[in-house]
């Protein structure tokens, strides 16, 4: 049997998964099972996110609340789509300019 391909996760996914534990008060095991992750991996993400939040509070920064995080993710996706559209338009305009 061939070895399983190692999955990689974006930083945004890790933060969102960690916040499902932090914000909801559910256990790491419950959320890990729901997301199809190993509990050890998710617990590392939760510890990292809690450290990041604590460090932000020490420096006087306020961490994002769930609504702000959701808005940030939505805007990042929108920016990605707009960048793809712009790249396409640049290529199309170069193609038609060469005609």
From TrEMBL:
Name by which UniProt lists this protein: Transposase
Origin species: Kibdelosporangium philippinense
PANTHER family referenced in this protein's UniProt entry, alphabetically: PROTEIN DISTAL ANTENNA
């Amino acid at each position: 049997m061939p070895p399983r391909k190692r999955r990689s996760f974006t930083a945004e996914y890790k933060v969102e998964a960690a916040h499902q534990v932090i914000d909801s008060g559910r256990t790491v095991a419950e959320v890990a099972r729901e997301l199809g992750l190993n509990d050890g991996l998710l617990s590392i993400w939760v510890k990292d996110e809690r450290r990041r939040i604590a460090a932000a509070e020490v420096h006087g920064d306020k961490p994002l609340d769930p609504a702000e995080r959701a808005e940030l993710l939505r805007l990042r996706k929108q920016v990605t789509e707009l960048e793809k559209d712009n790249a396409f338009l640049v290529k199309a305009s170069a193609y038609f300019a060469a005609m």
